[in-house]
Amino acid sequence: MRRIDSAPTRDILVKLLHNDALGRNGDLAEFAGILKSIEGGFSLFVDADWGSGKTFFVRQVACILEEVNPFLESHGDLDGLLDNNRELAPYMELNSFLPVYYNAWENDHWDDPLPSIAASIALQGDACASFRSDTEAGEKIAGTLDAILGVFGHGGASSLRDAFSGRDLIQAYRDRETLRSSVSNLVDVALPEKANTLLLIVDELDRCRPSFAMKVLEQLKNLFTDDRVVIVYSVNANQLSHVVEGMYGQGFDGRRYLSRFYDLTIPLRKVDSFKQLEANGFIKTSNRFDVIAYELAEAYGMTMRDANRYLTELFRVRPLVLESRDGFVDDRVRAFADAGLVPTMLALKVFDADAFASVVQKFEIEPLYHAFSKSEAAMEFMDATWGSYIKFEEGKTPSDEDKVGARHELLETLVYMIWCKDRNNSKYQHSYQVLIGRSWGFDSLPRLAKII
After folding, report:
1. What is the value of pTM for the model shown?
2. Whole-angstrom Cα distance, residue 112 to residue 211?
């Protein structure tokens, strides 16, 4: 078993760009067009739900911009992707951007965000200076950073100071106007000779402490007023508006307040569930387990994070249920439980924990039936299964109501056999009687409670 939710390292980002495994290259190309159209200072929100792959998107933007900037070291790993006839070719016209990625959540232990933001800019600017062997530029960057950090005394910036040991910190710039000037100086020395725009990407803001998140927004708005700075916030705007409302009280319009901090909102669509499953090695075969899993991933509209969690469960369970059926190959009930019930229950476990709990703890059938109804293959499998042992009057065509009743009976039988531990329970006993003679492997069904 392996954890699917990978960190967005450069190797992974580049691989996903080359095979367009997330189906996002078109979105990245559109974003390049937006960047090209921006004139002067600008702020925008890249908005999507939690787990939708916002971090991967903005990190890929930074990855491409770093590659096309001639004053940053080329990794040579995007060869071919930026050719004139390729989807990402528009980025070749954006070779004067200096991208800086800032993870707000990783820095919200500071009292004030500006030192860590300044350090992120300085580190990228210093990397550019180092690539050009420009010692003077590197010293200017360090000096400007020291000036900014000096404003914050000996408190939250102490660790940052340690990281820049050997460079004196100036205890000055205590008023905000001078600090704004110092920030502008940092932009001056961070931008290489042919880079005219600093692209500051602020990620994970909606996961921060409310007070820190507000400080990030307010400080960037008030201090980064330079026309050479474009700020991209990667956020769940709905969640961030709730953070604002929680700070300022009931009735406060969080959305309207947030509109002060951006010029444009770009909604980021969800990653295609099929592409996400395939990208992580879960290949759709003719096996019903796989077909049902794919249909459920699409039907639930899973986010990238949801799909990764579902994949983790599928990879863990699939070999256990599909390789354990030796000797029961003709047992329709066991086959349905393993290849139909299991992927459906795993989808509930990931996407609707309350519904999952109601099935395994309260033996409620309706949430499970509703989940099955999202997959055509699952419903067909269920009908083929109950049709093999539930008999209607000879010559009578079962009505839709008859079919629904039979489906519920099959699911109830399996749920009680798998999760009910009270052998004296009347419905458990009924389920036991239903399966005797109809399923050779019915007595092994309770093992699924441990697997799922």
Report:
1. 0.74
2. 10
70 phi-psi bin (left φ>0, alpha ψ -120 to 50, beta other): alpha
Order of strands across the sheet with 229-235? 97-103, 197-203, 229-235, 42-47, 264-267
pLDDT at 27: 95
Contact 419/449 with Cβ under 8 angstroms? yes
Q: Please report the DSSP string for 258-314 in residue order.
A: HGGG-SEEEEPPPPPHHHHHHHTT----SSHHHHHHHHHHHHTT--HHHHHHHHHHH
**Using one digit for the tens of pLDDT, what is the confidence trace for 14-53?**
998 998 888 899 999 999 999 999 998 999 999 998 888 8
Of 146-150, 179-183, 312-316, least confident by mean pLDDT is: 146-150
Are 338 and 321 in contact by the 8 Å Cβ rule? The answer is yes
Domain residue ranges in the chain: 10-267, 273-451
**Six-digit token string for 72:** 């940053």
Adjacent-strand bridge partners of 282: none
> What are the b/e assignments for 146-161, b being 16+ CB within 10 Å?
bbbbbbbeeebbeebb
Which residue carries 């005219």 as its tokens? 196
Structure tokens at 403: 């079919």
Closest of 239, 314, 318 to residue 276, by C-alpha: 314
**For the residues of 133-157, what is the DSSP string, one character each?**
T-HHHHHHHHHHHHHHHHTTTTSTT
pLDDT of the residue at 277: 77
Q: How far apart are CA 334 and CA 266, in angstroms?
A: 48
Torsion of CA 60, 62, 63, 64, to 10 degrees: 90
